[in-house]
Design brief:
The protein has 312 residues and is of the alpha/beta class. The protein is 30% helix and 25% strand. The strands form 2 sheets. It has a 7-stranded parallel β-sheet with strand order 3-2-4-1-5-6-7, sandwiched between helices. The mean pLDDT is 89.
Length: 312
């Protein structure tokens, strides 16, 4: 039966840990295979999926929540049922699902069974991506972080190039104290030789569907077509760095469209020549700081960071 089922690899990890970098690495490393990618965004803006589509076309995006929440699970199940047809992949070698950064993967095996999709898919691996500098705080603040580590078959300690050896070692020890069986690997840009589709992941924990969006998080999205002063926007974002987990999206600038991706530890900017749409920018942060995060999004939406507003 296993040979007839499509292997599925589930990728979890907190916002900005490097999950999309892992998907890009997978697409490059397994270029000879027919792999489908499903990218789940917590915000309504499809940023990570768009970035992956620039390198690989067999991608479906599910924005607007977690695929393991009641709000999006039905759409996720339907997508899995129709996946080979949707992506024109009658012979699919594997599926890689990037869950949103807040997802609890413990319910995944139950979901497949209830939808009778366990007859079609075999959960081959669950991979958790961890950033050394924030894992301790996340374990204290967000219960799903522990759930992600407990469920994992493999844990990638990513971004080791921007942290010292002690911080990386402490992160690995913390992961091992929670999960004594996972393979732990250290990486830069998630470049690892992990096998994705061999064997079957054995459920280590059980869980239920989230009934609603996690109140620990807030997401705010702004759209502006006027050129933005990206440096001024970044200065404003950095004033919220203690409460903002991720800021990413597509902006018009003086030099054309750009893709901006900010986390408290890294910031990347890429020019997008000829890019017209989508234009939009998402902020994801601490739910207790929703007023400040929503206010920043409203300022961006209103044109406060436009080049025309410079100096106001």
């Amino acid at each position: 039966m296993d040979e007839a089922r499509i292997p599925m690899c589930l990728v979890v990890g907190f916002l900005g840990s490097g999950k999309t970098s892992l998907l890009k690495h997978i697409a490059r490393r397994h270029g000879e295979k027919k792999i489908a990618f499903v990218v789940n965004e917590f915000s309504m803006l499809d940023a990570d999926g768009f970035a992956l589509k620039q390198e690989y076309e067999k991608v479906i995006c599910l924005p607007g929540g977690s695929v393991f929440c009641r709000c999006l699970s039905g759409q996720f199940i339907q997508t899995l049922r129709e996946l080979p047809d949707l992506l024109e992949l009658p012979q699919c070698d594997g599926v890689v699902v990037e869950a949103s950064g807040i997802a609890d993967p413990a319910v995944a095996p139950q979901m497949l069974r209830e939808a009778k999709l366990d007859r079609v898919y075999r959960m081959s691996r669950i991979i958790a991506v961890v950033e050394p500098g924030n894992i301790a705080d996340l374990l204290e603040q967000l219960p799903n972080t522990r759930s992600q580590l407990l469920a994992a078959d493999d844990v990638i300690i990513n971004k080791i190039d921007i942290y010292d050896a002690k911080t990386v070692g402490n992160a690995a020890a913390l992961v091992r104290s929670i999960n004594d069986h996972a393979v732990i690997v250290k990486a830069v840009f998630c470049q690892t030789p992990l096998e994705l589709f061999e064997g079957s992941s054995i459920p280590k924990t059980s869980g239920g569907y989230a009934e609603r969006a996690d109140p620990n998080f807030v997401t705010a999205t702004a759209t502006t077509e006027t050129p933005v002063d990206v440096n001024r926007l970044l200065r404003a974002i950095n004033t919220l760095r203690d409460d903002l987990y991720r800021a990413k999206g597509f902006l018009a600038s003086a030099d054309g469209a750009v893709y901006l991706d900010w986390t408290p530890s890294t910031c990347s900017r890429f020019d997008l020549p000829g890019h017209i749409e989508p234009l939009g920018f998402a902020l994801i942060g601490n739910g207790k700081k929703a007023p400040a995060i929503n206010a920043l999004a409203a300022r961006l939406q209103s044109g406060a960071f436009s080049l025309a507003a410079d100096g106001k």
